[in-house]
Write a structure and sequence with these properties.
Layout lengths: L33 E4 L13 H15 L3 H10 L5 H8 E7 L7 E8 L1 E5 L8 E4 L6 E4 L11 E7 L2 E3 L4 H4 L7 E5 L2 H10 L1 E6 L4 E9 L8 H6 L10 H10 L4 H5 L6 E6 L16 E4 L9 E7 L6 E10 L9 E8 L1 H9 L1 E11 L2
Parallel strand pairs: 3-16, 4-10, 13-15
Antiparallel strand pairs: 1-2, 2-17, 3-17, 4-9, 5-9, 6-7, 7-8, 10-11, 11-12, 13-16, 14-15, 14-17
Length: 364
């Protein structure tokens, strides 16, 4: 991802604290956060969860995660184990995630796979392009030169033998060398496709194609929700996908100005798969998370305790970290994948919940 559905980056009031020393030096390479070992009996809802489904999602993630040393052995064991509960208890140790301030409550948002409407041929209705990766976009993996920067990329273009910043969002449309996958009929929905990082487009021929994240222009992501709050256009407590879209549709002459505040721009590819996360496997609705890799490695089983944003019911379930996002930054921070369709869009748009995250770290 992948970009994800977070419209506002702000600090929430964390409500729990712990004075116990949590950090285990053995896990510095796994997480930069504080970790406190707990027992499975202390995980609220662990034994009541559908662990068989969680086990199947974990095994699917192993198609890519087993290339990491951390998961190689446990992924091999998953091929022969048949009892999900026993598998997790025998092979993992739970660790509660804490912030540097010894808080274990963080922000959980949501994302989904949108459906747009488009055409391969540009016309008066279908006129907003979904672009492929430009030929002049350069991506430099800094880890190949500086191992400590393995999680960072430098993006730009070459001009006069120098690497300079790539065009920001408002100027991308003036480039003449970009190849189009398809055109869509709604630039607001297209903007949120950039946020989600993948989606589907139903063409005027009736065909449905999958659109997947391919690269990004290197500009920093800006959550436009902050603009609405700062200018008192939408109250903080009411900020959501729904309220932002409503304002944009009601103020069409402000749309470009507001969308261009986010200088980041995403380029896509056409894919044979549905929504696929940064780990490289197709996402499972309500069982995959987007995370900050500095604190939660991709492929890691994560038990989440949070709430459904609509009915306030508890969400206590074992998920797998399979994705990342430009706005998903921080020790206790995750984006909950709701799937596709109108209900998924609705719930993802509403979700700004407090929650705890428990890593299931493979035993040595």
């Amino acid at each position: 991802m992948f970009y994800t559905n977070t419209f506002i980056i702000f600090f929430v009031l964390f409500i729990s604290a712990c004075s116990t020393k949590q950090y285990d030096k053995n896990f510095k390479q796994i997480s930069q956060a504080n970790l406190k070992e707990i027992s499975f009996d202390e995980i609220n809802g662990f034994y009541e969860d559908d662990l068989e489904l969680a086990f199947n999602v974990f095994k699917k993630s192993c198609m890519k995660a087993k290339r990491y040393k951390l998961f190689h052995d446990v992924c091999e064991k998953s091929n022969s184990d048949t009892n999900a509960k026993d598998f997790f208890i025998k092979n993992f140790t739970p660790y509660m995630l804490y912030s540097k301030n010894n808080k274990n409550i963080g922000l959980i948002t949501g994302y989904y796979e949108p459906l747009l409407y488009g055409s391969k041929i540009k016309n008066n209705r279908y006129k907003y392009p979904i672009y492929k990766v430009p030929n002049d976009l350069i991506s430099v993996h800094l880890g190949s030169i500086y191992p400590k920067l393995k999680d960072y990329r430098l993006r730009g273009k070459i001009k006069n033998n120098k690497l300079i910043a790539y065009e920001e969002r408002k100027n991308i449309k003036y480039k003449s060398n970009l190849e189009v996958i398809t055109y869509v009929d709604n630039k607001i929905d297209l903007f949120f496709l950039h946020i989600q990082g993948s989606g589907k487009v139903k063409l005027d021929t009736g065909e449905i194609i999958n659109i997947a994240y391919a690269n990004q222009n290197g500009r920093k992501y800006f959550a436009i929700g902050k603009y609405f709050i700062k200018n008192k256009l939408i109250k903080r407590k009411n900020i959501s996908l729904q309220s932002i879209k409503k304002y944009l549709y009601e103020h069409p002459f402000e749309v470009d100005k507001i969308l261009n505040l986010n200088k980041s721009y995403v380029f896509f590819s056409q894919s044979s798969k549905s929504a696929t996360g940064a780990l490289g496997v197709e996402l499972t609705a309500k069982r995959n998370l987007a995370v900050d890799k500095k604190y939660i490695p991709l492929g890691m089983p994560v038990f989440i305790n949070t709430n459904n944003p609509q009915n306030r019911q508890d969400i206590n379930r074992l998920m797998v970290a399979s994705d990342v996002g430009g706005a998903i930054k921080g020790e206790i921070r995750a984006d909950f994948f709701w799937g596709h369709g109108k209900e998924a869009e609705h719930l993802a748009g509403l979700m700004k919940e407090k929650g705890t995250l428990i890593l299931l770290i493979p035993k040595k």
